[in-house]
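Thread: quick sanity check before group meeting

JM: Hey all, I'm pulling together slides for Thursday and realized we never actually wrote out the predicted structure for the chain we discussed last week. Dropping the sequence here so it's in one place. If anyone has concerns about the input, flag it before I start.
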Amino acid sequence: MTPEALLELGVREVAEGVRSRTLRAREVLEAYVAQLEIEEPDVHSFLALDVDGARARADELDRRVSRGEDPGPLCGVPVAVKDNIVTRGFATTAGSRILEGWRPPYDATVVERLLGAGAVLVGKTNLDEFAMGSSTEHSAFGPTRNPHDLDRVPGGSSGGSAAAVAARFVAAALGSDTGGSIRQPAALCGVVGVKPTYGSVSRYGLIAFASSLDQIGPLAATVEDAAVLLEVVSGHDPRDATSATRPALAVCATLDDGVRGLRVGVVRDLVAMATPEVASAVDEAARELERRGAHVREVAVPEVRAALAAYYVIAPAEASSNLARFDGVRYGLRVGAPTTEALMVATRSQGFGEEVKRRIMLGTYALSAGYRSALYVQAQRVRTWLGRGFARAWAEADVLLAPTSPSSAFRLGERSHDPVAMYRSDVCTVPSNLVGEPAVSVPWGFDRERLPIGVQVLAPAWQEARMLAVAAALEQGAPR
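JM (edit): ok, ran it. Output follows.
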């Protein structure tokens, strides 16, 4: 099989081919490495690569298969992991100078599960520092570029993972989603991105940004590929206090169930926040679902209009607490100073980038005496109110349809000096994080500049199987 043909295989096809010995893990890996070596210098989707280690892993898998072993459902599949997910074999920086060169002594649970399923880990992907951003321009190690147009951003904060999948450097990747950081870059890069139900995937080994919002999920070329990864990494983990005591999600068997008879609600309150081209794409997607037998209607969730403001109080507040551990004393960067207090100030001042400092200050202010009730407590009330709005919507619809990003990919530098404009990039995605419910971004054609557009399917908690069946139907009918 030619390298070009190997790159077109789905995750399941690769794994089945390697396990049946019609393919070799090494030849699959080399097809991706060849693509990576050509284009990665321009895209900059990775912060750390270990091609030699990946080759050794692929050779080991081929030997195991030849001995009659079954390494698992991801056997021989080249994958990447966002660099805020700890890995024993790679430095983990979270895109920050304050962790530059730090090598964790353990693997995150999701990494253990990927490797246990036979995946080949190629490297760690670039991200906005500590996952705080919507463009992957806030990485301390330089921006990632969109493979569809190198002058555009790939989205963020999981822009490296999305770009690596879109450019065919790996078959699939993991990202983290705090306010849309999987789905928004998936939309801008033209791939599939899933934010699962909060608690469905272990966060053990994820460097925390906002602990009540963060969730790990897959990015992949197709809905099926994302579903296979989701089944592998989901399920209870006793090492994570926020992990739900439920089995792994079962989503692959129902991908072909279709949408006939399902109630689909178009969230006009979110569509109104998008550009005309993106809004038109959502309407076209709704018509496609209707042609396939779904009952489509508009559903009002006016509470989503307040979600972004609540998010940018809650998330920075949690970040200011979580990032207090980076003090120059225990691990990471240490800037010498005459006293412990001065050491901490110097280390944090030099180690953190401007966006991280901005969010720490916002969060500290929101939690400070005299403002906590007016800001943080009020934002939590809005969060509860938003949950009630979605509960009302679920009485009318089985799934909801909305834009993923209000626009297609913007130019590098276009919003770098306007934090509010950058924050608005998350306006369609933060509601699902605030209520802890699943959502998936599916590619839906291109705009007039041939930049990808993504549409978003939202579902009630633990309804990933239904959500991904709808996503699969959209994928089949999407414009090419």
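AS: nice. The mean pLDDT is 97. Residues 95 and 117 are 27 Å apart (CA to CA).
JM: adding both to the slides.
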